[in-house]
Design brief:
By secondary structure, the protein is α/β, with parallel strands linked by helices. The chain has a single domain (about 1-185), classed as 3-Layer(aba) Sandwich (Rossmann fold). Helices cover about 30% and strands about 20% of the residues. The chain contains six helices and eight strands. α2 runs parallel beside α3 (about 115-125). The chain is globular and about 70 Å long.
Length: about 220
């Protein structure tokens, strides 16, 4: 068994906020695999996932702590203790202001990076657990207002692409482990193509395009 824990705040008021990207990724996985029956256990909403053969078989738990972000470690610790799992068998999905919107970063371990949810998990379980960071961009002004604010209409397309790719990454982790799933790191959408080059202007008075001299002496 493995655990996928998304960090976020409970309640409809926070449902589409930047701080709830972890919940959004788990919701996408549940939608994609037609999972149902979230139940309240370990101060969290938990959904059992019987993983298909294409993703490595076995059982996984999707976990959305209902303790607010700052106490995310309470549910993480309780789930792992109940199932006698190591922290390395839990993937944490978390928002990250240090990554541009739409970017992903999967790591096998690391620091909290200033995120209070990760700080609480590390205080209880240490640092040796994989985490998938999903970028929400750095705020221009107040950080709290930014993370607790909803995504703008202009950000929705990047958000949708990022959530879908993050769900792909979770599936990759279940199937292949961290080292292979790291291929999902980076932007969720390819950069926009540069504008097409304009053709050279016509020669004055001729209405024709001037011929570019060739470097070939035979022409």
């Amino acid at each position: 068994m493995r655990v996928v824990l998304g960090i976020g705040n409970p309640g409809s008021a926070y449902e589409r906020t930047r701080h709830n990207c972890g919940f959004l990724v788990l919701n996408e996985l549940a939608r994609r695999h037609r999972l149902a029956g979230w139940s309240k256990r370990w101060s969290a909403l938990v959904c059992d996932w019987h993983v298909s053969e294409s993703l490595g078989n076995g059982r996984a738990l999707l976990v959305k702590p209902q303790t607010f972000v700052n106490l995310s470690g309470e549910s993480a610790q309780a789930v792992l203790a109940f199932h006698k799992l190591a922290a390395s068998e839990m993937l944490v999905v978390v928002d990250d202001i240090n990554l541009p919107l739409g970017h992903l970063r999967l790591r096998p371990d690391g620091s909290a990076g200033g995120h209070n949810g990760l700080k609480d998990i590390e205080a209880r379980l240490g640092k040796t657990y994989p985490r998938l960071r999903v970028g929400i961009g750095r705020p221009a002004n107040d950080q709290v207002d930014h993370v607790l604010g909803a995504f703008t209409e202009a950000e929705r397309e990047d958000l949708s692409a990022m959530i879908a790719k993050a769900a792909d990454c979770v599936e990759g982790w279940l199937r292949d482990g961290v080292s292979v799933a790291c291929r999902f790191n980076g932007p969720s959408r390819p950069p926009a193509a540069p504008p097409a080059a304009k053709p050279p202007a016509a020669a004055p008075g001729t209405g024709t395009i001037p011929r570019t001299p060739s470097a070939d002496p035979r022409t």
